[in-house]
Structures are given as structure tokens and as C-alpha cells.
Amino acid sequence: MSTPVEKWLPAMPVTAGRLQYMLERRSEALTVASYGAKGDGVADAAPGIQLALNAARDAGGGWVIVPAGTWLLSTLPLRIYDNTRLTLLPGAELRRNMAETMLINGDAAQNFGGYTGHSNITIEGGLWNMRGTTAGLTGSVMCISIGHASDITIRDLEIRDVPGFHAIELNSTKRGTIQNCRFRGYIDPGGRDFSEAIQIDLAKSSGVFGGFGPYDHTPTEDVLVTGCYFGASGTAGTTAWPRGIGSHSATITKFHRRIRIVGCTFESVLQYAISAYNWEDVTVSANTFSSCGSGVRIRSVIVTDTEDTKDPAGNQTSASQSIKNFAVSGNTFRFGGSYDDPVLALGETTGQILNLSVSGNAIDTTAGSQNGVRLERVERYAVTGNTISNVDGTAVSMENSVNGNVASNQIYTPNAHGITAVTCNHLGLYGNNIMYAANNGVLIQDGSDMQIRNNYIKSPGRQTNATWYGIRISTNASSIHLTGNKTRPNGSGNEAINGLSITNACTLIARSGNDWRGSQFTGGALSDSSTSPTTSATDIT
Q1: How far apart, in Å, are the Cα atoms of 512 and each of 161, 432, 448, 484, 534?
Q2: What is the pLDDT of residue 12?
Q3: What is the mean pLDDT of residues 51-73?
Q4: 10 Å Cβ neighbour count for 136?
Q5: Backbone angles phi, psi at 20, to 5 degrees
Q6: Measured distance CA(6)–CA(149) in Å, rounded
Q7: Helix/strand/coil (H, E, C) string of 240-307?
Q8: Most Cβ neighbours (<10 Å): which of 20, 148, 258, 507?
């Protein structure tokens, strides 16, 4: 019933890891054909595959091999157990033929809490064909479902045409890696326009995770998703995924933590490529986003969602909770979608987003897109060294946010403002280059305690003549120091009113060493109507 693993070596990509595994373990592989499974695309192969998985379970672990062929699965779900490695060899296809999840770790009646369920599992290789457009198979199901587990690796496989739910769910899982996988094709059977290809979730209820209990609200931690592709399959009646990676349920006092998404490609994802809902300690780096509805969303618990605002005991808190520690860096966004912004962080009054860095990203969008980077109710943040071009809204938008640093960004032709700060406090704008903004170069409304230094603004107000400003400060803004800034008009065509405009509702304004010159400004280079401004003779007008 078993085959020496060396027999399969020539058919497998011989990586250093696989070879080392073979040399160290010298175990025997369990080929599913030896347990009666046929890869002819006609016979039900699921019973034979399950027998091989059971044999691995009974031996305390093992390596189950699925050779090349089309393995029809008419008896589902398949169940995988502790210490099992399931390998589909090149040319192997698992073809779903039942309205059920394809693979789950463990049995329906099990009751392993926390991370004590079936663990130390590797799933790799092959095409996992969910056939979601096929008659009788269109209802919502998952492909691979993992819960109450630790040390899970899923790699080098393709999941195609999933209906309704998710390609992979990591629920109540600690230490999960998803590597070099392809997620192609999705079907919405109705009411599932928000599904993620990879869902990161917690053991909240049978409605959230239907595989097994207990429903102890165990979150997911220590996840790496790397080298994966998310997009369309080309199958008639399918689309790309609504969302690539994310969550859409929560429990107050619980968090998904230490999640890294590195080096992935998201193409034509309909909504959010990444939706970090109630996550903490997150790194999103070196990814490519192409023609997606939105890029990276960071979101605290939505206070109007009355299920998510409950605590583990079921008590209604009617509140969100703060989440912290996010780095979004070195990504490229080439957008054509208009669902939401390429990068956005949205907190709540009772659940702010803390400690956010958005750095070194290249954002290049087209008409119909939204803002470049948008922050609401964020505290302790840095937006630095990004290149933001052609956004249809504002390049960097901030509202009700505190303790921020926006520096060294290259902003080109935003179709609204370059940078806006509305009711923001303790903010620094340093060394940004803002070119050809359709509206204001910088807009400050309300807020206090700001430093605006060494920014260069060229050709503000290019959309409408005599309407906009290089820097506009208004609406009770207070305690602002401007130094070393430079504004220049366009020189022809539409022009801004002033290089700097400050309204009479603003107080405690200090200016020094700025250069507002430009005879083409329609209302003069400088208009400071603030109460008792502090100025320096070195301000050039």
C-alpha cells in the first residue's frame, strides 16, 4: 500500500528543501492509486484519497502523493490530519463534483480548542478545480478550510473558479504560510460580493466557520502570504476575486496579529485587494496591484456592525477597538478601478488606527480612481517617500488624525488637492513636491500645532482659473508655522488666486523664509488675514 518516496523524485521539482526532507526522513510515500483512487476523471477518486489520508493519520503522519491525472471528487469533504503532507504532482487535478468543501483539517465532531486541532500539515501542488459554474456546484463552498490549527503550509497550487466562499480559510490558526499559489476565478451565487480568496478569521460561530467547533473566538496569528497571484481564470461566467486577502468578522478584545503579505500580484480584483480588518502587527510590502477596485484597506471594527461589536461572552459593547502597527511599503499600484482608494486606513472614534507607516510606494492611477492615500482617525503615522501620480481625487488625504508626518512625497497632477488635512493636530508636512494640482496644493482646515516646511508647489489650481491656492489655511486652524516653502504659478492658462492664503478665522500663524512669488497669481502672491500673524522679513512675495 506504500511506495518508496524515491520513485516519485524524478516527477517532482527537486528543490533543496524536498531533497533534504527525503534524505533526512527516508520515509515511504502513500500514493492514492494504491488505495483504489483512479485519476481517469470518471470514477470517484475521493474514497481512495481519503483512505490514504486515513493511513497517514493512523501512522501518526505521512506523505500522501496524488500523481498526474484528473481525480474526480464526488464524496466530500476530504479530511486531513496531524503531521500529513499532501502533494499533487505536476499534471494532477482535483476536480470537485459535489456541493461541498474540498478539504478540511479534521472531523466534524472534534472539539479541539485554541490551536490544538490537527496541525503540522503541508498541502502542495496541482490544480484544485472547484468548477463553480457547473450545474449543481454553484452554491457557496470553500476549497481548503483550516481551523484550530498550527504550522500549516499551503504552496505551489492553483485554486480555480470558487463559488461564494473562499479558496483558503485560515481560521483560528497559528503559524500559517501560503506560498506561490494562484487564485483564479470566482463566482458570486448571490449576496457574496465581498468574499476573499484567502480569508483570515476567528472561531466565532458556526456561521463564520462551519467545519467544527469549539467557537472560542480563537483568532489567527503569524501568517505569511508570499509570491501568490490573485485574478481571473477566463472561465465564462466568472470574475476575478472581489477581495484578495482579508477578514470581514470580528470580536471585541480579539485581534489577528503578525500578518505579512509580501511579493504578491493582485490583478483586476473587484474591491479590496487586501482588507486588514481588525488586524495588528501587519506588513504589506513589495506587492503589485493592477487595475484593482482598491488596494490596501486597514479598518478597525465597524461600530455599526452589531455582531462584530460583541465581546466573547456575547455582550454588546456598541464600540470599536483600536488596532496598531502597520507598515505598507515598497508596493506598486497601477489603478483603473474606482471602488475605493489605493491605500486607506479608516478608524472609528472608539477604535483608532495607531502606528501606521506608508512609505516608498508608487501609485499611478487613471480617471475614475479615488484618492491616493486616505487616513481617517489615525494616530501616530508617517506617509513618506511615496510617488503619487494622476489620482482622480487628493494625493494624500487626512481627517481627524493626530501626530502625523507627511514628508518627501512626489505628487504629480492630482485631480483634486495635493495634500489635505481636515481637523488634524500635531502634523508635520516636510519636503513634499506637489506639481500641477487641479485644486489646492495644500489645504488645511481646522486643526492645530502644525509645521509646514520646505515644500515645493508648482502650478496649483490648474483646473479652474482664480479659484484655488498654493497653500490654503482656513476654518479655525491654529498654531501653524510655515518656513522654507516655495510656490510658483503655472505661467499661463488657469492660475491660482494666491501662493499662500490664510483666512481671518485662523490664529497663531508664524511665517519665515518662504518664497510665494509669482505675478500670475490672480490675487497676488500672499494673502494672510489671520489674527496677529508672526512674520519674518525673509518671507519673499
Answers
A1: 61, 18, 18, 7, 8
A2: 42
A3: 97
A4: 9
A5: -65, -40
A6: 30
A7: CCCEEEECCCCCCCCCEEEEEEECCEEECCCCEEEEEECEEEEEEECCEEECCCEEEEEECCCCCCCC
A8: 148
Identity of the residue numbered 401: S
Determine how β-strand 3-4 pairs with β-strand 28-31: antiparallel
Assign 536 a pLDDT band (cuts: 50, 70, 90): low
Entry pTM: 0.93
Q: How far is CA 441 from CA 20, 393, 437, 530, in A?
A: 58, 12, 6, 19
**Which CA distances in Å does 109 have to 112, 117, 212, 260?**
10, 12, 7, 32
3-state secondary structure of 319: coil
The DSSP H or E segment spanning 471 is strand 469-474
Are 76 and 95 spatial neighbours (Cβ–Cβ below 8 Å)? Answer: no
Q: Answer whether 435's CB lies under 8 Å from 459's CB.
A: yes
- 256-290 confidence digits (pLDDT tens): 999 999 999 999 999 999 999 999 999 999 999 99
What values do phi and psi take at 456, rounded to 5?
-115, 125
Tell me which DSSP letter residue 429 carries: E
Compute the distance between CA of residue 130 and CA of residue 98 in angstroms, rounded to an integer: 9
